[in-house]
Amino acid sequence: MFIQSLFILSSLSLATNDLPQDDFSVRETPREASSHYCGLHCAYAAAQALNTPYQFKDSIDNRFLTGKYGSSVRDLKNLLETVGLVGNINGFLTTDHLKLSDSPVILHVRPLSQQSKYTHWILFLGFDDQGMVNIYDPPREYGQITLAELLSIWDGLGIVVTKEKRSQLTALPTSFFFILLIAGIAAAIWTGAHWLSGWKLIFIVASGASLIVHFATPTGFFNAPAALKNVQAAYFAEEIPELEYADVKDLLKSNECQMIDARMSGAYQRFHLPGAQNIPVNAGYLKLMREINSLNTDRPVVVYCQSDQCQWAKKVAQQIAVHSKNDIVIYRGGVNDWKSNKKDEKK
């Protein structure tokens, strides 16, 4: 565990003021939307945490950005070696590994805007005394999430960043599951001559033990509300009703709704509907939850993006729907429809 993780977390926020923001206002393409410098930001922050600073601009190099969505795991390993650090790659990390780690770990996660694709990197900076996970979510988001929330977005791939080469982190699986698995193997061998073959029994016992662990342990899937909510948003989302221009205009006039702009920050700054706040489709978990928690639960939420061909409003609306108690609707026409109707009204 990071003994000084909270100190590191606060000091990093001061030390990384020179980190560049991705400029979404220039080219709003899927590549920019995935924040393709996120891996570089994590490597830079990890180096700061280990007192091995370097110039961030030196890492903006095609050698370290060869992946489809930015930096691949090999790119980050090569970058860390270039600046004098070691990147220990492990594709099967568990929460037990993280609890044992005394080093920053770059974790491969999925942004909430892409439920099925793992295209983002965040930096693990240890646990606090209450078991909250300290993370850095590039380019500037520092904060804490629960272990369940981390499990809902992480695929188990990580890069343990150290100053010197070390053996891979090891940790026993959950002891309860391990004991049941050994018992199942012993029982399978003992009953191998019966109608239920040994391997079938091993499979049944192991599967049952896994389900018990997920139901009974605090980090199990069925005790992870964030994980269940993300699955709900991705695969079981309810159909969200849509409004036309006249309905949205009336709601705004009576001040009876909260407007959410799902576009990138650059587009939002250039133009947005009256009173709208920005929750971009590529928002990290910390920003998303902060914005959702700021909503007034007594007023409905209207989400929009650029046009009726844009799917970002639907993605953001689904996330708000599963994380809040607000009534949610989508303004399907979005900015284009709003401008067109306003232009017609002036004729």
From TrEMBL:
Keywords: Membrane, Transmembrane, Transmembrane helix. The chain crosses the membrane at residues 174-195, 201-222. GO terms for biological process: proteolysis. GO terms for molecular function: ATP binding; peptidase activity. Residues 32-161 form the Peptidase C39 domain. GO terms for cellular component: membrane. The keyword Transmembrane applies. Coiled coil: none annotated. The keyword Amino-acid biosynthesis does not apply. InterPro entries: GlpE_sulfurtransferase, Peptidase_C39, Rhodanese-like_dom, Rhodanese-like_dom_sf. This is Molybdopterin biosynthesis protein MoeB. It comes from Gimesia aquarii.
